[in-house]
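hey can u check if this looks right to u? its 316 residues, i copy pasted from the old doc so theres a chance i mangled smth
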Amino acid sequence: MKIVIPGGTGQVGGILNRALRAAGHEVVVLTRRPGREGEVWWDGATRGAWEAAVDGSDVVINLAGRSVSCRYTPDNLREMMASRVDSARVVGEAIAAAARPPRVWLQMSTATVYAHRFDAPNDEATGVVGGTEAGVPGYWAYSVEIARAWERAQEEAATPETRKVALRSAMVMSPDRGGVFDVLLWLARLGLGGPVAGGAQYVSWIHDRDFVRAVEFLIGSDLSGPVNLAAPAPLPHRAFMRALRAAWGVPVGLPATKWMAELGAFALRSDTELLLKSRRVVPGRLLDAGFAFGHDEWRGAADDLVRRVRAARAGT
């Protein structure tokens, strides 16, 4: 198949690019800074010569959008919104204008769309969309609105010959440098991998190889609309970090209060929403469609990721 990945130079794009090329597919990455074979320039906001890559392709997987690993200032939040909505809009316009449109358009979204909650998991059918929770920072609602606008841009695109899926993805855990697992493992190795703010908030995650397999499954399925890409066993932060420490062999992890988390997030130029929001998300539609996870429990997934990190650092 010919697969086009707008915004495919980030961590998740790298994971998909490697796996899909290894499987024998032709992969074209749309990026603002092309420099490698298979990369084509685009600006993520306007139509242009890049549309030729979309016309005649089999699948488009749009990952474009400003990284959420930043301080959630008003300017950064506005940039997150614009980069996601604009890219989804122009991808939809390119598909609509194609003489031979792709049969599938997978649009990245986020599990952040769901409410901060502890009482029950969020699946696609019964999950509660966030934005109106009490007792959480007001700007968290804007993150939900970004997700809703992102999905709405895909929904409103006039692409009748192309099946559309919104990927409500949890954090993708991979051994790659600079990814979320790399940061969490670094904290654990420093002895800082204890619970944050009590650690009751749920962590939703997906192993990188299951993420790839789920994308391949969705390409071959008939599913459309929102689909949660998350392992079926989210767990509280304290248990999540305990399993990560055990996988590396770190006996203890210092706990952190909210204000300590704020200082750490500031130093890392990130935001505490990524740590403090309870994302209890489960993959209802994937499981109902018969998808089988290779890593459905965090302890085994963490062990596998740590083995791969150590193997990469040993050069084996």
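The longest helix spans residues 74-97.
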